[in-house]
Write a structure and sequence with these properties.
About 25% of the residues lie in helices and about 30% in strands. With about 190 residues, it is an alpha+beta fold. The strands form 2 sheets. A 6-stranded antiparallel β-sheet has the order 1-2-3-10-5-8, with no helix packed on it. The chain is globular and about 45 Å long.
């Protein structure tokens, strides 16, 4: 429960930012729904803070707005410090998909790269319909487990210790085949 004087939660700030992005683009909820394939009622509930977005929905919104997910989440956080202690790294969970995202080195003004730690439960998968920023460079280093990543219609099996690197221009898909969860470090470099 939030007390008086406490800053709004990340979800509450995200709801406000999503509404502002839509109005900045001059789009109605119907138009945004048409562009993303997300229902108007879901979009409305997201903007009112009644619903937390799933990874897939957030990915669809980021693609339409031309933002990486990290950049959008950075916009709703205070300016990050140069030193980011583990206890202060923002964590976002999508319980439905079994995805947990830790912003290890959040985006920062003047810097093009960031580091994210991702974990996917066994048998979990996430699809992104489009690159949030076409040509964004990604390096994925698997720390534990195995993940199957589809990029440009090619499926890569990336095992513990392996690193997959590419420029993302279209859809991508992450799947954890199990039997254990996968934990990986993702470095994102804007073009």
């Amino acid at each position: 429960m939030r007390e008086a004087g406490d800053p709004p939660s990340v979800d509450a700030r995200l709801a406000v930012r999503l509404g502002l992005l839509r109005t900045e683009h001059g789009w109605s909820l119907d138009e945004l729904s048409r562009r993303t394939g997300v229902s108007r009622s879901t979009l409305s509930r997201l903007e009112r803070g009644e619903l937390s977005p799933t990874t897939t929905v957030l990915g669809q919104l980021c693609a339409v707005y031309g933002l990486t997910m990290s950049h959008l989440l950075m916009e709703v956080e205070a300016e990050p410090p140069q030193l980011v202690p583990a206890a202060r790294q923002r964590v976002w969970r999508d319980e439905r998909s079994g995805f947990v995202r830790r912003s290890v080195s959040p985006p920062h003004a003047g810097l093009r790269a960031e580091i994210v730690e991702g974990t996917l439960d066994a048998d979990a998968d996430i699809s992104y319909e489009n690159a949030p920023v076409p040509g964004v460079e990604q390096h994925i280093w698997v720390l534990e487990g195995t993940v199957e990543i589809t990029v440009d219609e090619t499926v890569y099996t990336v095992r513990e210790g392996d690193c997959l690197r590419f420029r993302l221009r279209g859809p991508s898909h992450f799947r954890c085949p199990g039997p254990q969860r996968v934990r990986y470090a993702l470095t994102i470099v804007l073009p």
